[in-house]
């Protein structure tokens, strides 16, 4: 543990190590994407996917070790008892900091399949980033704007079909798809700009997860609702972590069913769209109350699991 060192000394050292960790695994993943392009064989793709998964797990393990090296963190994870690495999950979460991704990856590491993010189809052709994400089997989605659909109505529904095809590989490989539903990190300024009705959250965006559920809802065993909280670091979480000031990481997990309440034609069925938005807003209201309750009582849930350092 190096948290006893002054923050000004830790900051450049910790930032450099996190950056090197990202660069190292990024350099290892990129050739896998190139090999996947050059070797269009299913057996080769399976081996490359396995190697890519190893790279992701390596990146996560080093991130976790660095967080614990520079900080004396109290990890409090509740609700993870029923999770397993052999299921398919849609993971939704609030978004406080760029640190959320390493934190979610740490919690997922030994409990659920590695998280994957939906990416725009255009990014597939971006050098290094696109090939690296393709090597990691990140799903790509292609959306058509209302203007394009007005000119070419035959494309209606093709976006979901394209995404389904992109997700075909997940039918036999347990997968977690992650979506930060607010679309951006929470700040007090953004709360005012977006006229958020919540105290600690931004309004959730329903379209992304509705699209995901429409594309591959039948494959999911459950929806995981993650509530992330850094109670001792309310302002600049990532900066505090780099300076050795991160004290507590709270992750509360709720497992929700995948049923007819959340699967439907969000973009063309007005009744379902209103129902789905109501369901998601209710989830966010409950999440906001959870955050308020925790901060008021400042006590962990009795079923909290302490992560090993």
What does this structure look like?
- Helix 2 packs across helix 3 and helix 6 packs across helix 8.
- The chain contains ten helices and nine strands.
- The chain has a seven-stranded mixed sheet, with helices on both faces. A two-stranded parallel ribbon has the order 4-5.
- The protein is an alpha/beta fold.
- It is globular and about 60 Å long.
- The termini are close together.
Outline the biggest β-sheet. 7 strands, mixed
How many distinct helices? Answer: 10
Q: H/E element string?
A: HHEEHEEHEHHEHHEHEHE
Uncertain spans, ≥5 residues at pLDDT below 50?
Answer: none
Keywords:
alpha/beta; seven-stranded mixed β-sheet; two-stranded parallel sheet; 309 residues; 10 helices
Layout of helices and strands, plus pairs?
Blueprint: H1 7-38, H2 42-70, E1 74-78, E2 89-93, H3 100-108, E3 115-117, E4 119-120, H4 129-135, E5 140-141, H5 146-151, H6 158-166, E6 176-180, H7 188-193, H8 206-216, E7 222-229, H9 237-242, E8 248-256, H10 270-297, E9 305-306
Parallel strand pairs: 1-8, 2-6, 2-7, 3-6, 4-5
Antiparallel strand pairs: 1-9, 7-8
What does this entry show, briefly?
The chain has 309 residues and is α/β, with parallel strands linked by helices.
């Amino acid at each position: 543990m190096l948290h006893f060192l002054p923050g000004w000394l830790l900051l450049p050292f910790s930032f450099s190590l996190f950056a090197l960790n990202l660069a190292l695994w990024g350099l290892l993943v990129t050739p896998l994407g190139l090999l996947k392009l050059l070797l269009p064989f299913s057996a080769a793709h399976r081996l490359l996917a396995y190697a890519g998964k190893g790279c992701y797990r390596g990146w996560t393990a080093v991130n976790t070790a660095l967080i614990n090296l520079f900080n004396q963190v109290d990890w409090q994870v509740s609700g993870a008892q029923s999770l397993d690495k052999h299921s398919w999950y849609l993971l939704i979460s609030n978004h406080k900091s760029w640190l959320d991704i390493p934190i979610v990856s740490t919690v997922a590491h030994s409990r659920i399949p590695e998280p994957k993010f939906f990416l725009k189809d255009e990014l597939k052709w971006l050098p290094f980033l696109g090939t690296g994400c393709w090597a990691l089997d990140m799903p790509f989605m292609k959306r058509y704007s209302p203007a394009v659909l007005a000119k070419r109505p035959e494309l209606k529904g093709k976006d979901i079909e394209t995404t389904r095809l992109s997700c075909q590989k997940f039918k036999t490989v347990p997968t977690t798809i992650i979506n930060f539903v607010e679309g951006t990190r929470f700040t007090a300024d953004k709360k005012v700009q977006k006229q958020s009705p919540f105290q600690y959250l931004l309004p959730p965006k329903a379209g992304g997860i509705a699209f995901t559920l429409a594309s591959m809802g039948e494959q999911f065993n459950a929806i995981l609702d993650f509530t992330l909280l850094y109670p001792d670091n309310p302002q600049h979480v990532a900066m505090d972590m780099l300076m050795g000031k991160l004290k507590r990481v709270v992750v509360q997990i709720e497992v929700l069913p995948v049923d007819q309440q959340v699967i439907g034609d969000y973009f063309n069925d007005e009744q379902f769209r209103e129902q789905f938005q109501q369901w998601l807003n209710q989830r966010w209201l409950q999440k906001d109350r959870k955050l308020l309750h925790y901060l008021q009582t400042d006590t962990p849930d009795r079923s909290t699991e302490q992560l090993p350092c």
